[in-house]
Amino acid sequence: xxxxxxxxxxxxxxxxxxxxxxxxxxxxxxxxxxxxxxxxxxxxxxxxxxxxxxxxxxxxxxxxxxxxxxxxxxxxxxxxxxxxxxxxxxxxxxxxxxxxxxxxxxxxxxxxxx
Amino acid sequence: xxxxxxxxxxxxxxxxxxxxxxxxxxxxxxxxxxxxxxxxxxxxxxxxxxxxxxxxxxxxxxxxxxxxxxxxxxxxxxxxxxxxxxxxxxxxxxxxxxxxxxxxxxxxxxxxxxx
Lengths: 114, 115
Prior knowledge:
The complex is a heterodimer of chains A (114) and B (115). Chain A is mainly beta. Helices cover 0% and strands 57% of the residues of chain A. In chain A, the strands form two sheets. In chain A, strands 2, 4, 5, 9, 10 and 11 form a six-stranded mixed sheet that branches. A five-stranded antiparallel sheet of chain A has the order 1-3-8-7-6, with no helix packed on it. In chain A, strand 4 and strand 5 (45-50) form a beta hairpin. Chain A is globular and about 45 Å long. Chain B has 115 residues and is mainly beta. In chain B, strands 2, 4, 5, 6, 9, 10 and 11 form a seven-stranded mixed sheet that branches. At the A-B interface, strand 4, strand 5, strand 9 and strand 10 of A face strand 4, strand 5, strand 9 and strand 10 of B.
C-alpha cells in the first residue's frame, strides 16, 4: 500500500529562522510528488511537482528537493505570511488504464512568529 | 480568475437527509477528482472522471455516494441518507491529460456538517 509520512506534524519558527519539512514515501512506482499549501478553511494551493530523484524546484522562499525515498521543503528566512499547512502528495504509476489519484500525507502545520 | 469553483461553500443538514454538491473545473481540464478531508488529515481520494467517464472509485465511496459528470463539464457529488461521519470538507480538483505535468488544481471546498 502506498504511504506518505510528513514530519514534523507542527513547526513553530521565528521570522527569518530557516528550516525544512520532510515527506517520506513508500510507493510501488512514483509518477510524481506534489507539494501544496493549505490555509485554514480553504482548498490546497499547488506549489511544486517533482518527478525524479535529484530534481529541485524553487519559488520565492521555498525550495523543494526529491530523493528516491523522501522530499524536503526548505523554507528560507520565512515570514508570518508563510504560516499554513504544507501537504505532500504522491501520484503512483499503475499498469493498465493508469491512476491519477493523489495520496496525501497529513501535513505539517507551520507557524511563523514575528 | 477561471479556477475551480464549488457550490455551496457550506452545507448544514440533518442526519438522514440527502445533499448534493457541485464542482465546475478549470475550463480546459478534462480530468476531475473528488476528495474528502477531515480535521487534521490530508485529503482522501473518492473518485475520478476523465471527460464524462467515471474511471476510478475509492472503497471510501459507499453505496450512499454517487458522482456524475454529464457532458464532461461540471460534476455533482450526492450523498444519500447522510450520517454524522459524513461531516467533512469535500474538495474538487481538476487537471489536464495533455502531456505533463499532471498537477491537480483544487477548489475552495464544500464544508458539510451533519447534525
